[in-house]
Amino acid sequence: MSVADPWSDLRAYTAARLALGRCGASLPTDEILRFGLAHAEARDAVQRQLDAGALVARLQATGVQSLAVASAARDRTTFLLRPDLGRRLSDSSRMLLSDAPDAGAGIDLLVVVADGLSAPAIERNAVPMLDAIRRQAPPGICIGPVVVATQARVALGDEIGGLLEAALVAMLIGERPGLSSPDSLGIYLTWKPRSGRSDAERNCISNIRPEGLGYDAAARRLWWLCGQARQLQLTGVHLKDRSSQASIAAVAPVPAIPADPPTQPP
User: Would residue 22 count as lying in a domain?
Assistant: First the structure.
Protein backbone atom coordinates (compact mmCIF):
# COMPACT_ATOMS: atom_id res chain seq x y z
CA MET A 1 0.00 0.00 0.00
CA SER A 2 1.27 3.46 -0.87
CA VAL A 3 2.02 5.73 2.11
CA ALA A 4 1.89 9.52 1.65
CA ASP A 5 4.82 11.60 2.85
CA PRO A 6 4.02 14.05 5.70
CA TRP A 7 5.98 16.77 3.87
CA SER A 8 3.88 16.49 0.68
CA ASP A 9 2.47 20.03 1.07
CA LEU A 10 5.95 21.37 0.17
CA ARG A 11 5.53 20.06 -3.37
CA ALA A 12 3.27 23.01 -4.14
CA TYR A 13 6.32 25.30 -3.90
CA THR A 14 9.01 23.46 -5.87
CA ALA A 15 9.57 21.10 -8.77
CA ALA A 16 12.31 19.34 -6.77
CA ARG A 17 11.79 15.66 -6.04
CA LEU A 18 10.81 15.63 -2.40
CA ALA A 19 8.02 14.11 -0.29
CA LEU A 20 7.63 11.28 -2.80
CA GLY A 21 5.95 8.86 -0.43
CA ARG A 22 6.69 5.15 -0.34
CA CYS A 23 5.22 1.79 -1.12
CA GLY A 24 6.81 -0.75 1.21
CA ALA A 25 10.57 -0.24 0.83
CA SER A 26 10.24 1.39 -2.62
CA LEU A 27 8.86 4.49 -4.27
CA PRO A 28 5.24 4.52 -5.47
CA THR A 29 4.84 3.42 -9.08
CA ASP A 30 3.63 6.82 -10.28
CA GLU A 31 6.80 8.47 -8.92
CA ILE A 32 9.00 5.92 -10.67
CA LEU A 33 7.15 6.66 -13.91
CA ARG A 34 7.54 10.42 -13.43
CA PHE A 35 11.27 9.97 -12.88
CA GLY A 36 11.54 7.89 -16.06
CA LEU A 37 9.71 10.59 -18.04
CA ALA A 38 11.93 13.36 -16.65
CA HIS A 39 15.06 11.36 -17.50
CA ALA A 40 13.79 10.77 -21.04
CA GLU A 41 13.04 14.49 -21.47
CA ALA A 42 16.55 15.40 -20.35
CA ARG A 43 18.12 12.92 -22.76
CA ASP A 44 15.90 14.15 -25.58
CA ALA A 45 16.87 17.77 -24.88
CA VAL A 46 20.56 16.93 -25.28
CA GLN A 47 20.09 14.87 -28.44
CA ARG A 48 17.55 17.03 -30.27
CA GLN A 49 18.66 19.11 -33.25
CA LEU A 50 17.77 22.80 -33.30
CA ASP A 51 16.04 23.95 -36.48
CA ALA A 52 18.15 27.05 -37.02
CA GLY A 53 16.39 27.95 -40.28
CA ALA A 54 13.00 28.01 -38.59
CA LEU A 55 14.33 30.15 -35.74
CA VAL A 56 15.92 32.64 -38.14
CA ALA A 57 12.60 32.85 -40.01
CA ARG A 58 10.72 33.52 -36.74
CA LEU A 59 13.14 36.28 -35.82
CA GLN A 60 13.07 37.91 -39.25
CA ALA A 61 9.26 37.80 -39.21
CA THR A 62 9.40 40.05 -36.13
CA GLY A 63 11.82 42.44 -37.83
CA VAL A 64 14.99 41.13 -36.16
CA GLN A 65 17.98 40.83 -38.49
CA SER A 66 19.56 37.41 -38.03
CA LEU A 67 21.81 34.84 -39.65
CA ALA A 68 22.75 31.22 -39.00
CA VAL A 69 26.22 29.77 -38.42
CA ALA A 70 27.56 26.41 -37.28
CA SER A 71 30.49 25.18 -35.23
CA ALA A 72 33.19 22.85 -36.50
CA ALA A 73 31.27 19.87 -35.07
CA ARG A 74 29.61 18.37 -38.13
CA ASP A 75 26.74 16.65 -36.29
CA ARG A 76 25.21 16.18 -32.86
CA THR A 77 27.20 13.07 -32.00
CA THR A 78 30.49 14.80 -32.81
CA PHE A 79 29.38 17.84 -30.81
CA LEU A 80 28.79 15.71 -27.71
CA LEU A 81 32.03 13.73 -28.07
CA ARG A 82 34.28 16.66 -29.07
CA PRO A 83 33.51 19.77 -26.98
CA ASP A 84 36.55 21.50 -28.50
CA LEU A 85 34.94 21.49 -31.96
CA GLY A 86 31.85 23.17 -30.56
CA ARG A 87 34.03 26.08 -29.44
CA ARG A 88 35.15 27.14 -32.90
CA LEU A 89 33.37 28.01 -36.13
CA SER A 90 33.24 25.92 -39.24
CA ASP A 91 35.30 27.30 -42.12
CA SER A 92 32.22 28.37 -44.09
CA SER A 93 30.69 30.16 -41.08
CA ARG A 94 33.95 31.96 -40.38
CA MET A 95 34.03 33.23 -43.96
CA LEU A 96 30.37 34.29 -43.71
CA LEU A 97 31.01 36.41 -40.63
CA SER A 98 34.31 37.78 -41.92
CA ASP A 99 32.45 39.18 -44.93
CA ALA A 100 29.43 40.39 -42.94
CA PRO A 101 28.66 44.10 -43.45
CA ASP A 102 28.10 44.51 -39.69
CA ALA A 103 31.75 43.78 -38.85
CA GLY A 104 33.34 46.85 -37.31
CA ALA A 105 30.00 48.70 -37.20
CA GLY A 106 30.32 49.74 -33.57
CA ILE A 107 28.16 46.98 -32.08
CA ASP A 108 27.71 47.51 -28.34
CA LEU A 109 26.00 44.16 -27.71
CA LEU A 110 25.96 41.14 -29.99
CA VAL A 111 23.45 38.42 -29.11
CA VAL A 112 24.28 34.85 -30.11
CA VAL A 113 21.56 32.22 -29.74
CA ALA A 114 23.05 28.73 -29.43
CA ASP A 115 21.56 25.27 -28.98
CA GLY A 116 24.17 24.16 -26.42
CA LEU A 117 22.94 21.15 -24.49
CA SER A 118 19.21 21.85 -24.83
CA ALA A 119 17.52 22.71 -28.11
CA PRO A 120 14.10 22.89 -26.35
CA ALA A 121 15.45 25.70 -24.16
CA ILE A 122 16.07 27.76 -27.30
CA GLU A 123 12.81 26.80 -29.00
CA ARG A 124 10.74 27.82 -25.97
CA ASN A 125 12.66 30.74 -24.51
CA ALA A 126 14.91 32.45 -27.05
CA VAL A 127 12.31 34.59 -28.86
CA PRO A 128 10.61 36.01 -25.72
CA MET A 129 14.02 36.53 -24.11
CA LEU A 130 15.25 38.46 -27.14
CA ASP A 131 12.07 40.53 -27.11
CA ALA A 132 12.67 41.48 -23.45
CA ILE A 133 16.31 42.39 -24.21
CA ARG A 134 15.34 44.65 -27.09
CA ARG A 135 12.47 46.31 -25.22
CA GLN A 136 14.72 47.19 -22.29
CA ALA A 137 17.73 48.32 -24.32
CA PRO A 138 19.03 51.70 -23.05
CA PRO A 139 18.90 54.61 -25.53
CA GLY A 140 21.83 54.89 -27.88
CA ILE A 141 22.90 51.24 -27.58
CA CYS A 142 23.71 49.47 -30.85
CA ILE A 143 22.53 45.84 -30.86
CA GLY A 144 24.00 43.77 -33.67
CA PRO A 145 22.23 41.13 -35.75
CA VAL A 146 21.19 38.00 -33.89
CA VAL A 147 23.51 35.11 -34.75
CA VAL A 148 21.92 31.65 -34.45
CA ALA A 149 24.60 29.02 -33.85
CA THR A 150 24.21 25.25 -33.94
CA GLN A 151 26.35 22.54 -32.31
CA ALA A 152 27.67 25.40 -30.19
CA ARG A 153 29.45 25.66 -26.85
CA VAL A 154 29.67 28.90 -24.84
CA ALA A 155 33.14 29.82 -26.10
CA LEU A 156 31.91 29.92 -29.71
CA GLY A 157 30.51 33.35 -28.90
CA ASP A 158 34.06 34.61 -28.40
CA GLU A 159 35.06 33.92 -31.99
CA ILE A 160 31.75 35.23 -33.35
CA GLY A 161 31.95 38.43 -31.33
CA GLY A 162 35.58 38.91 -32.28
CA LEU A 163 34.88 38.63 -36.00
CA LEU A 164 32.07 41.21 -35.76
CA GLU A 165 34.20 43.41 -33.45
CA ALA A 166 31.46 43.67 -30.82
CA ALA A 167 32.17 45.33 -27.47
CA LEU A 168 30.12 42.68 -25.64
CA VAL A 169 28.67 39.33 -26.64
CA ALA A 170 25.72 37.74 -24.86
CA MET A 171 25.45 34.03 -25.55
CA LEU A 172 21.90 32.73 -25.04
CA ILE A 173 22.43 28.99 -24.75
CA GLY A 174 20.56 25.86 -23.75
CA GLU A 175 21.85 24.75 -20.36
CA ARG A 176 22.62 21.19 -19.30
CA PRO A 177 19.17 19.66 -18.59
CA GLY A 178 18.15 18.78 -15.07
CA LEU A 179 15.52 16.23 -14.12
CA SER A 180 13.03 19.02 -13.47
CA SER A 181 14.30 21.59 -16.00
CA PRO A 182 15.06 20.24 -19.50
CA ASP A 183 14.43 23.68 -21.05
CA SER A 184 16.56 26.04 -18.97
CA LEU A 185 18.22 28.94 -20.80
CA GLY A 186 21.46 30.60 -19.72
CA ILE A 187 23.09 33.88 -20.77
CA TYR A 188 26.89 34.25 -20.77
CA LEU A 189 28.17 37.80 -21.10
CA THR A 190 31.75 38.46 -22.25
CA TRP A 191 33.59 41.76 -22.63
CA LYS A 192 35.72 42.25 -25.76
CA PRO A 193 35.10 38.72 -27.04
CA ARG A 194 37.95 36.96 -28.80
CA SER A 195 39.15 33.38 -29.10
CA GLY A 196 40.96 32.28 -25.97
CA ARG A 197 38.74 33.97 -23.39
CA SER A 198 38.26 31.84 -20.27
CA ASP A 199 35.09 31.14 -18.30
CA ALA A 200 36.49 33.31 -15.49
CA GLU A 201 36.07 36.27 -17.87
CA ARG A 202 32.30 35.82 -18.21
CA ASN A 203 29.18 36.59 -16.19
CA CYS A 204 26.34 34.08 -16.20
CA ILE A 205 22.58 34.49 -15.76
CA SER A 206 21.05 31.05 -15.29
CA ASN A 207 17.72 29.17 -15.16
CA ILE A 208 15.80 31.53 -17.45
CA ARG A 209 12.35 30.07 -18.17
CA PRO A 210 8.77 30.71 -17.02
CA GLU A 211 9.25 28.39 -14.01
CA GLY A 212 12.58 30.00 -13.09
CA LEU A 213 13.97 33.49 -13.69
CA GLY A 214 11.52 35.47 -15.82
CA TYR A 215 12.46 37.10 -19.13
CA ASP A 216 12.04 40.71 -17.97
CA ALA A 217 14.05 40.09 -14.79
CA ALA A 218 16.82 38.41 -16.79
CA ALA A 219 16.90 41.30 -19.29
CA ARG A 220 17.18 43.86 -16.47
CA ARG A 221 20.08 41.92 -14.97
CA LEU A 222 21.78 41.62 -18.37
CA TRP A 223 21.58 45.35 -19.10
CA TRP A 224 22.85 46.20 -15.64
CA LEU A 225 25.84 43.94 -16.21
CA CYS A 226 26.38 45.48 -19.65
CA GLY A 227 26.47 48.96 -18.15
CA GLN A 228 28.97 47.94 -15.49
CA ALA A 229 31.08 46.05 -18.03
CA ARG A 230 31.37 49.14 -20.23
CA GLN A 231 32.42 51.27 -17.27
CA LEU A 232 34.93 48.76 -15.88
CA GLN A 233 35.90 47.38 -19.31
CA LEU A 234 35.73 43.79 -18.12
CA THR A 235 33.38 40.96 -17.25
CA GLY A 236 33.86 37.86 -15.12
CA VAL A 237 35.03 37.35 -11.57
CA HIS A 238 35.91 41.02 -11.11
CA LEU A 239 32.36 42.13 -12.02
CA LYS A 240 29.99 41.28 -9.16
CA ASP A 241 26.28 41.10 -9.93
CA ARG A 242 24.64 43.71 -7.71
CA SER A 243 21.77 44.37 -10.10
CA SER A 244 19.21 43.78 -7.34
CA GLN A 245 20.64 46.79 -5.49
CA ALA A 246 20.61 49.21 -8.43
CA SER A 247 18.19 50.73 -10.89
CA ILE A 248 18.39 49.83 -14.55
CA ALA A 249 17.91 53.56 -15.22
CA ALA A 250 21.54 54.03 -14.24
CA VAL A 251 22.65 52.13 -17.35
CA ALA A 252 23.57 54.57 -20.10
CA PRO A 253 25.94 54.69 -23.05
CA VAL A 254 29.51 55.63 -22.24
CA PRO A 255 32.18 57.19 -24.45
CA ALA A 256 33.74 55.15 -27.23
CA ILE A 257 35.78 52.16 -26.14
CA PRO A 258 39.54 52.75 -26.43
CA ALA A 259 41.52 50.53 -28.75
CA ASP A 260 43.69 49.24 -25.89
CA PRO A 261 41.53 48.76 -22.78
CA PRO A 262 43.29 48.98 -19.41
CA THR A 263 44.77 45.88 -17.86
CA GLN A 264 42.36 43.89 -15.69
CA PRO A 265 42.99 43.99 -11.94
CA PRO A 266 45.09 41.13 -10.56
Answer: no
Write phi, then psi, for 185 (nearest 5 degrees): -105, 140
Residues of the chain with pLDDT under 70: 1-2, 246-266
266 occurs within a structural domain: no
CB atoms within 10 A of CB 159: 24
CATH number, domain containing residue 130: 3.40.50.11240
pLDDT in tens, 222-238: 999 999 999 999 999 99
Q: What is d(CA 215, CA 229) in angstroms, rounded to the nearest whole number? A: 21
Number of domains in the chain: 1
Residue 225, in any domain of the structure: yes
Closest CA to 178 of 15, 1, 8: 15
Q: Do residues 151 and 81 make contact, with C-beta atoms less than 8 angstroms apart?
A: no
Under 8 Å between Cβ of 151 and 79: yes
Report if residue 185 sits inside a domain: yes
Pick the closest to residue 87 from 78, 96, 95 (CA basis).
78
* Single pTM value for the model: 0.85
Output the DSSP codes for 167-184: SEEEEEEEPPPPSS-TT-
pLDDT in tens, 141-198: 999 999 999 999 999 999 999 999 999 999 999 999 988 889 999 999 999 999 999 9
Q: In angstroms, rounded to a whole number, what is the distance separating the alpha carbons of residues 234 and 6?
A: 50
User: The domain containing residue 178 runs over which residues?
Assistant: 52-250
